[in-house]
Amino acid sequence: MDEQPLSGIRILEWSLFHNGPAAGAMLGDLGAEVIKIEHPVEGDATRGIATISGAPAFLPGGRTTMFEGANRNKKGITLNLQSEEGREVAYRLVAKCDVFATNFRRSVAQRVGMDYATLSRHNPKLIYAITLGWGGLGPDSDQRVFDQLVQARSGLMWATGDRDLPEPQMVQGAVVDQMGATMFAYGILAALLARERYGIGQEVEASLLGSALHLQAVNVNTVAWQGRATPRHSRTRARNPMDNHYRCRDEKWLRLAEIQSDRFWKEFCEALEAPHLATEPRFATM
């Protein structure tokens, strides 16, 4: 097998649900050896998720779609980190790893001796990576958080949906968890590069809220620089007919995405087999 970018990098992962585990899966895609710690009895909670938004999530053999998707490429070990024996095994692993990654709250990590101050004593060049809900500062920094709450608080639920719909809309599919995992992996990669260049280990922090704001960078920058929010999309009031979606006669939907409608209007009309519309005065400009 050919060498991959992260071949030779070993990651010890202690995380649940999707945000943390998906980052480990992506780093495994790049060739890292990822060892996942699970509780001996409870395991990762996604092993028991029977439905997602009402749809069945189980696969043959008792597996689940959510667990399998976020835990590919991994080895596994069960440890009771509340016991001295379990922690000692974890510490021996940490001494031989490049990265320790977790999405447990800092208070939980400290309680079981899996915080940065403790683990760095076993491996001074360790990259300790933690992803949190609301970030590491502020009164909510140690609160449990799930994708849905971050969609609401970050404004993503209001940015989604039609302008004429008088209620927020949630995006299905744990998109903030996935974006958070991407930013988490991004931070870990930067820390690995820093260690290669400067020979240092460090603590890396990511957050779901920060990731959701990054996902909406254009909207956030509009508010920050112009003092106004970007309006939600509106099918009925869209100024550009070539940047909209339409229900067709067969009840399927067609999405057009050309922001330079005036430039390509003639070709568009020809594609519709309606070339006469290209010279129709009512449609002369957007």
Q: Which sequence of strands runs across the widest sheet?
A: 5-2-1-6-7-8
What's the total count of β strands? 10
Radius of gyration: 24 Å
Query: How much helix is in the residues?
Result: 25-40%
Tell me the major beta sheet.
6 strands, parallel
Order of SSEs:
EHEEEHEHEHHEHHHEHHEEH
Which word captures the global form?
A: elongated
Tally of DSSP helical segments? 11
Query: Structural class, from secondary structure content?
Result: alpha/beta
Gap between N and C termini = 54 Å
Uncertain segments are none
Q: Mean pLDDT, rounded to whole units?
A: 93
Percent strand equals 5-15%
Task: Outline the fold blueprint.
Blueprint: E1 10-14, H1 19-29, E2 33-38, E3 51-52, E4 55-56, H2 65-70, E5 74-78, H3 84-94, E6 99-102, H4 106-111, H5 116-122, E7 127-132, H6 147-153, H7 156-159, H8 175-198, E8 202-207, H9 208-215, H10 217-226, E9 245-247, E10 253-255, H11 261-271
Parallel strand pairs: 1-2, 1-6, 2-5, 6-7, 7-8
Antiparallel strand pairs: 3-4, 9-10
Helix pairs in contact: 1-8, 8-9
List keywords for this structure.
alpha/beta; 6-stranded parallel sheet; two-stranded antiparallel ribbon; 10 strands; 37% helix; elongated
Offer a concise description of the structure.
This protein is of the alpha/beta class.
Structure description:
A 6-stranded parallel β-sheet has the order 5-2-1-6-7-8, sandwiched between helices. The protein is of the alpha/beta class. The model has no long low-confidence stretch (mean pLDDT 93). 37% of the residues lie in helices and 15% in strands. It contains 11 helices and 10 strands.
